[in-house]
Amino acid sequence: MIESLAFHGWEKVVVVNGHGGNVGALTELCGELTRTERAYTVPFTWFEAVADRSRMGHGGPLETALLRATHPELVREDRIEAAREGMAERWGEWVSRVNLAVDSAEFTNNGVVGDPGDPDDPSETDGSRTEGESNEGERDDELLAEAAAALATLLDAVADRDTGRPARK
Question: Where are the domains of the chain?
Answer without folding.
Answer: 53-140
